[in-house]
Amino acid sequence: MSPLLRTRPLTSLLLLATHQCLLPSRVFVNGAALPADENGWTSVERPEPPVEVDVVVVGGGYSGLTSAYELHQAGLSTVVLEAKDRIGGRSRSHQRESGPGIVELGATWINNSTQPAIWELTQHFGLETLVQYTEGDEVLQSPDGQVVRVPPATGEEEESPEPEDIVAALINEAVEEVDIRQFADFPEDQDVSVADWIALNGLWNESGIPELLSQMTTTIVGREPNETGAHYFFDYIKSGYGLESLGTETEFGAQFLMLAEGTTALARKLADAMTPGSVLTDAAVTEISQDDDTAIVTIKTGKKFKAKKVIVAIPTNTYSDIKFTPSLPSEKAQIVSNTMPGIYAKMILSYTEPWWREAGLVGKFTSLVGPIRFSWDTSNPALSQYSLAVFIAGDVATEWHALPDEERQQTMIEHLAELVGEDLADYALDVLEVNYVEWTKEEYIWGGPTSAMAPGMLRQYGTALRESFANLHFGGGETAYEWKGYLEGAITAGQRAAEEVVEALGSGGKA
Ligand SMILES: Cc1cc2nc3c(=O)[nH]c(=O)nc-3n(C[C@H](O)[C@H](O)[C@H](O)COP(=O)(O)OP(=O)(O)OC[C@H]3O[C@@H](n4cnc5c(N)ncnc54)[C@H](O)[C@@H]3O)c2cc1C
């Protein structure tokens, strides 16, 4: 492709394509010209020529946008095709109706030391961060429904270890052993579900352990312990620096910082930094066909895009919505049909005042009963935005999704009122605004925070997950080595896929 064409904005490519269609020309069928009508038009509809770019990126989430941004920086022409009417994918910041500020319906937290890629981007685009609120007691509900208030740990507790401490220690030990880059090394006899693995270690029948494990796996990957592969679970935990990192809001915790403008602001900054008109929404890809050096990508309207390379940056469970010609290699196809989008919903309850803070609570409500599984304080006091983000996951979420619309929100509010106790219940019930997304019902995504793997899948097919297939390269958070299921993983996977393409095509398309 000439340098001129490479730097031409996509909008002008689209105009060029339209203009070419306006020129009357004659259509031949079996060597004979069809008669033209009096205006010089034929009665046969001709397909528009495909829009031509160096690289098509499928999916306008963080991973796809990062790939396109990197390719743009390298001088390659790109188009991002996003199925939904918005970019950001599993990140979705929503402007509040009852006052200033946003609420996060998908991804929220980042970390400046353990997640360097997203941190670098937020700094590059000058986005402000807020530190997670940490003052006060947590509230825990045990499987029998009993609710207790738990003060912050001092480090001086000398109690004998509870069964949950033993389970956590066991999992931490297994996590230590896992190599997140060598999937085949995981011992085959341990390659069972999390539930079976705990049973192999003689703990499944201990009181409260099944409920505790359900809390852990559904909270972390959105699936129950009997569905989630132990190898996959350990790999996922290690990829996020361990259980403590994943579960905490400390300086090294995954819940340390929030973006004041919302995570979607970063997605928009990435899109705005690229050629105008090169990120298309309402553009669900239905087909990708490829030959030796070209790929043709078709979207639902029938419009076609021709490219030297394609980056597929969508959740692995959604590959099945695209017709690939030739078909994906069998190993990759196995992964597609065996990854399970997490069953997940997130509700933001906004209030006029931070009543829980005033009562000495940090805003962390954990229940082994449900429907609320866990929660965090997501307030921005500078804007008088006071909110709790409550999460529903796994089988509890499946039941909750099936409730009638009006009951769904009420059940959550009433559960919060139960967790805070009689003295604070009225405050919990006095909600200012409710916003939520049932990620399991979101078209083109179908769950969150990630697509989990069943037993055996990672050991057998982990390598195939991110392998390219001729002109197709694979990004998406699920293909990350580190921080899979997080924005950081989506970004690094997008960068890796872009690097593969630049290596193949050369900077500016010069191989
Ligand atoms: C409730 C919730 C809370 C979370 N909390 C956090 C958090 O606090 N911190 C954190 O780091 N991460 C969090 N995550 C995870 C994080 O949001 C994801 O890991 C990340 O957004 C994944 O990015 P992605 O680009 O890989 O995929 P996605 O964001 O899913 O983007 C893929 C895009 O592809 C599009 N698509 C699908 N099929 C097609 C098609 N055929 N044609 C065109 N487009 C298609 C989809 O519409 C989507 O926009 C959370 C996720 C959820 C759901």
TrEMBL record:
<keyword id="KW-0732">Signal</keyword>
<protein>
    <recommendedName>
        <fullName>Amine oxidase</fullName>
        <ecNumber>1.4.3.-</ecNumber>
    </recommendedName>
</protein>
<dbReference type="InterPro" id="IPR050703">
    <property type="entry name" value="Flavin_MAO"/>
</dbReference>
<keyword id="KW-0274">FAD</keyword>
<comment type="similarity">
    <text>Belongs to the flavin monoamine oxidase family.</text>
</comment>
<feature type="binding site">
    <location>
        <position position="63"/>
    </location>
    <ligand>
        <name>FAD</name>
    </ligand>
</feature>
<keyword id="KW-0285">Flavoprotein</keyword>
<dbReference type="Pfam" id="PF01593">
    <property type="entry name" value="Amino_oxidase"/>
</dbReference>
<feature type="binding site">
    <location>
        <position position="478"/>
    </location>
    <ligand>
        <name>FAD</name>
    </ligand>
</feature>
<dbReference type="InterPro" id="IPR002937">
    <property type="entry name" value="Amino_oxidase"/>
</dbReference>
<feature type="signal peptide">
    <location>
        <begin position="1"/>
        <end position="24"/>
    </location>
</feature>
<dbReference type="GO" id="GO:0097621">
    <property type="term" value="F:monoamine oxidase activity"/>
</dbReference>
<feature type="domain" description="Amine oxidase">
    <location>
        <begin position="63"/>
        <end position="501"/>
    </location>
</feature>
<dbReference type="InterPro" id="IPR001613">
    <property type="entry name" value="Flavin_amine_oxidase"/>
</dbReference>
<feature type="binding site">
    <location>
        <position position="285"/>
    </location>
    <ligand>
        <name>FAD</name>
    </ligand>
</feature>
<dbReference type="InterPro" id="IPR036188">
    <property type="entry name" value="FAD/NAD-bd_sf"/>
</dbReference>
<keyword id="KW-0560">Oxidoreductase</keyword>
<feature type="binding site">
    <location>
        <begin position="82"/>
        <end position="83"/>
    </location>
    <ligand>
        <name>FAD</name>
    </ligand>
</feature>
<feature type="binding site">
    <location>
        <position position="391"/>
    </location>
    <ligand>
        <name>substrate</name>
    </ligand>
</feature>
